[in-house]
Amino acid sequence: MAALSAWFWNERFWLPHNVTWADLADPAPGVEYPKAGHLLSALPLALGIFAVRIVFERYIAGPCASILQIQTELSRRAQPNAVLEKVFTSITKSPDSRHLEGLSKQLDWDVRKVQRWFRHRRNQDKPSTRTKFCESMWRFTFYLCIYIYGIRFLWQSPWMWDTRHCWYNYPYQVLTSGLYYYYISELAFYWSLMFSQFTDIKRKDFLIMFIHHLATISLISFSYVNNMLRVGSLVMCVHDTSDFLLEAAKLANYAKYQRLCDFLFVVFSMIFFGTRLIIFPFWILNTTLFESWEIIGPYPSWWLFNSLLLVLQVLHILWSYLIARIAYKAIMRGKVSKDDRSDIESSSEEETETTPKERLKAASSRGENGTNGHFGSKPWSQNHNNW
User: Fold this and answer.
1) How high is the mean pLDDT of the chain?
2) Domains in the chain: ranges and CATH
3) Which of 277, 289, 372, 281 is nearest to 332 (CA)?
4) Does the pLDDT of residue 375 top 70, yes or no?
């Protein structure tokens, strides 16, 4: 174990040239440097945050949902069927035409009846709008609070206005209490998201979000151990800037305030593109790649840290593409009823077999002619996260 620990904490990997762990182990009285052991305090705090979330959703978000008349929908349950249940749990939740025809013959059911069973079975596991509202309200509250804290703290920090201060006198930069609380709170929240992702609403971008949370936790932990907290605090603040706006738009969507939802989505999109595609690469990556190279020079963990930031930027580009596609549909069609990550199923997806003439007549009666000026009345904003 001693040999493994010595290998993992190799000074030549973690620290700049001519710096040792001993140099950071015994600072002057009243001076504190980050230590790896500090990160362990984020785990019990993550459990505490998860517990606060449960209480918040039950006693604060729940009553708010009731005031807005957001009730738990009563979904139709699929009738018990051992054969179909086995296929659903073991083979596929969305059978193709070949499977449907085979099951239809095996059960002597109409194909549409089999389709209907699978749709009801999938919807049976879907959370209600009320559940999604409570989840989004919790995320909105945390993101807004941590953003306000972060921006107030950074406003008084010199590296907010001149990113070169992130590297002056590095790694002998004092750990202040404000920076410690900011870091550990963010780390604990992302640990809680990592845990709760397996119990929250399942979305099609589950794997992307899992990679995002893993990369975020790795970046926060890595930068803490390396005492790159200054630039790390800038990264966190840039991400927090748009997160609470997305959750606010989702809240408006669940409450059926569609115009407010559309407005918040537009604001969120503009800030997301600005922070993730402009500020992050041209401000954050510029200082981590170029200014740090000039002031302290590269070393092994420097390369890894910047690689993780580049992974994060690739995810930013992916999400920006998805958001832009939603906006494009809104402009071209006047309505976006569902994006690719939506967790709501409509019976029209699988069962509607109306003629083109009937569909045209129905669309006309609903005003789906691309001139309604909204993004749509069904939930579009199923993305979450900490983008």
Assistant:
1) 81
2) 34-67+128-341 (no CATH), 82-125 (1.10.10.60)
3) 372
4) no
